[in-house]
Amino acid sequence: MKFFVPFTIGSLQAEQVYGRSKKRLEDIGFQVSDVRIQQLAFQHEGELINHRVGDVTPNGEITAALLHSDVGYFVCTLAVANESTGPMPIRYTQLIMDSSIMAVSYFDAL
């Protein structure tokens, strides 16, 4: 599947939102991989969960990106913007530890 970020217009805006999400984590000290993750399968409280970019999270937000770091996988969601003209805000809503991951699917190479 081709790389995308939900609710972005075109590949340029998708790249900007993804890049900002990655950079924010790097700015606070995480080492973030360059791979583009489409879907994760992981164990949570004994249940197998499949989660992909574009899915709704349990708190009702849309998954914008899945980022792999040196501490695990971050689920990044789209937050409500204060102004429609500002950059699309991203929130980090979940950290999934590497040991919980059962499978990872990637977007097609650019």
Automatic annotation (TrEMBL):
Protein's name according to its UniProt entry: Uncharacterized protein
